[in-house]
Structures
1.
Amino acid sequence: MKKFIWAVALCFACANFAQADLIITGTYDGPLSGGTPKGVELYVLNDIADLSIFGVGSANNGGGSDGQEFTLSGSASAGDFIYVASEDTGFTNFFGFAPTFTTGAMSINGDDAIELFQSGSVIDVFGDIDTDGTGEPWDHLDGWAYRVSETTPDGSTFALSNWTFSGINAFDGETTNATSATPMPIGTFTPAAVPEPATAVLFGLAGFGLCVVRRR
């Protein structure tokens, strides 16, 4: 019985202090020809040996999820930023470096929602997939949205308070992000500190112990 309790306690600790490996940290709807650059910024929270278990999809004009439309590839290290854009030229001209991936699935506007998938399940989302974002608090037409540092993935339910916004038309007339009056804070997200493993286990054990006491 004691071994069982210890095993359950350790599982409790692991479950409560587990951290996702990838998170959506930014979206952008640019002012260049064709409304470019368009796409998302992702942040790697933990080393990922195989990025192909992750993918992104867009939900345009409140039409609901279209599922995973693009699958990542390769590997990534904790602290890396990944840029998935609709094309290469506009992104490079505007931000000064090339995107990591390009896909037509990121032909989004500031009123469209974005989903991040892992093994086919949604682990993070920007916007409401069932709502046209025009006029909504998260609308960033011709602008950007950026995640607040130290916030965690939202799962399938968008958390507006985890984001900051440029407002609509912030990029109008601009030619580069660096010279914009309201530049996107690209590549600036910092994650929440993760407790040391020993600390996590102790907290897990304490929480489990309280549950056992209450059940008696």
2.
Amino acid sequence: MAKRVAENPIITPEMVKPSEPNLEVVGAFNPGATRYGDEVILLLRVAERPILDDPDLVGVPVLNLNGSSSQRLEILTFPRHSPLTDLSDPRAVTYEGRVYLSSISHLRLARSKDGIHFTVDEQPTLFPETKYEEYGIEDCRITQIEGAFYISYTAVSRYGICVGIARTEDFKSFQRLGLILHHENKNVTLFPRKVNGLYVAMHRTAASAFNGPNMWIAYSPDLLHWGDHQFLMAPRIHHWDSRRIGAGAPPVETPEGWLIVYHGVNAKDGYCAGVALLDLDEPHKVLSRSHEPLIAPSEDYEVSGFFERVVFPTGLVPMNDGRWMVYYGVADRSVAVAETTMDELLAVAKGEPALMGAGC
């Protein structure tokens, strides 16, 4: 059963220094997570918005794509009370029919010896750079493969939502490898080893006229070119994941299958964390799937925030004493962590009654 630590939330926006003086940090959440040496490494999604003196204006930060300017960001302003301005969703600003994000996100490194108490870097680790990252980079996952760490992240721009990938060996220098999937795709999580000679990734497509957003599996010879896409999972009516699902933490190999922690959404609880098992040799085959969530929003820091009722798992990290730490974003604002064991995760994934509702 996943047990929330007493220190939650372990990282809040107040702990993060803005990247520029005219910005304020409104979110530090949805972290990619891994072990590096004797430390737990998080790559936080840090969301910032402009500080404006005029209350009648609303500001939108975007990447400055003008190569002649030294400013990394451009602040667009719109009349707050205009009928052409829609602020109904706190995550977005719509003006004259065009949608912008109300904040821009980058990735920021945080490190810890015990997995609970973190020190956050003062400067961004990965900042938006390309036209496909004009509105920010978000919600990364970190997977160690063959001695290197691969960071898959969501890139947002006027062209849509895409998936980028970067590589590092030391969390000091990073190499962007480019976009790996077409637009309107996100929640990409890489497997830690090849299966039948190919790299494997989970991804989540956008909704269509025929169904909601579904999880898929894709295969690649080189981590850059992906194909052989195969359906994995869909939302389940009358379950905790009835409205929306998406990959969470990178898969963990166990003798019983690939264990995945993923998120699901329902009308009652909002965003929850759940568990599933996939076949080791054919990971597009689901062996079992939790009947109830591993963690559902119930604490104040999970229920209230920038966006209400959100438990968004993005990291699953082993500790030396046998504990597994589930790192998750809460309410699109902060980071929380819950402790569990692999036996307990497997039991929940297989739907064993004794553990149903644990941690909820």
3.
Amino acid sequence: MSLAEGILDPSKKTTGDMFIGWAPAPKVDRRFLLGALPLAFAGTSGASWLIAKNLDDPGAGAWLTNTTHSVTGVLTHHPYPMIRFADTNAPFGLRTVLIVAIGKCTSALEWRDRAAEAVTASGVLIQRKDHQMLEVPPFAQEWLASVDGPVDTALAAPTIESLGSARLAGTIMDSKCFFGVMRPGRGKTHKACASLCIRGGIPPSFWVRSRDGREQIMLMTDAAGDPMPKDILPLVADPVEAEGEIVRVGDLIQFRADTSAYRRI
């Protein structure tokens, strides 16, 4: 006999239980739920901890939006916008701060007629360990001021030292997000954002990690030391390898290789 038949004919007994939404749950169901809920909570908590434990460390990046930071030094645009200033605590007696615009429009910065002069730049500091970047408005009068006095030639044209050729495996990042604007600012999930940033003039970086977990972040240029061309964009955020020249310019390490030298791995 079906449950429907029992409902239509009350004289007949039904063979199944009828669910009533507003009625109290049966004792057996209550006992099951009271026993299962703690186990379910412990299981989901343990799974969450295990997933979080196995995620990559996003790195010690910071985007210090709560204050304005000022840098006084020599402005240059090659291969990318940057300011160099003397710093006795830095490894080579100077420090380089890359310059990027708010958003993804660094290539639109109005400042090229101010290159190779002493200036003070003001903006938001982005940093990852020893790597620093200043985020500024697009119009020069809003962030750039001239400084009286001679230009230090050691800052305008620092020593260039070749550290030799090497075949390196790593990932191409946009420096802005990777230094601290996004955490983590890497991987496949960041590919679209990184491509837009690099297309907009933000310097690309080559992130290389050794087997013991140490990281090396190198500014990417073409083989001649000029800005990386836009045909590198399809390889952004993918694991790649390339043979190129490692060059030290002041305190910055560059990896110089043409786009044709890179291949996915």
4.
Amino acid sequence: MAREPRSGGGPEGGGGEGDRRRGRGRDRNENRQERTDGDELKDKLVTINRVAKVVKGGRRFSFAALVVVGDEKGRVGWGAGKAREVPEAIRKATEQAKRTMIRVPMREGRTLHHDVVGEFGAGRVILRAAPAGTGIIAGGPMRAVFETLGMGDVVAKCLGSANPHNMVKATFAALQRCTSPRAVAARRGKKVSDLLGPRKDAAPAEAQEAANG
């Protein structure tokens, strides 16, 4: 005896279990694409190196990439990836950088609040706050970090290893030590004015009021 077709399982029925699963999959993919497009992240390739592994029968080559990613609004991250092909290595490094992003407080949205020193292994860097119009005065790996971070005025110097990995990691160690007057005031239970004192433009105004009064 021939079996009757299941309801909704054929082309005429529609709405089967497989269709519902595929529909849910499309919704997840569309939401994921919207989140990716909304990030507006900028990535820079710092360095790429060809490495060789000696195996039986010869050498096996692969590529190691170092990438920094930032939104140019105070968030930045770095990542390293290795693969047999250059595009795949860059993709791995970019994905890792997106997962390890940090937020750096900036004064007026352009420079650091204070000078800071960072160290990692043999790498040692010094970052200094700079007045408006100074620009980014830094080496290649550190410049890539500041550009993706969105910092416009900073002076940086590398005093240790010139290895790009050590320089980038030392720079991030320094950025993680940066803080803002608001955070320090909140930690100490004081006001920002108590730490920074009266504003410079307030003193002439008070003197003028005293002279007029």
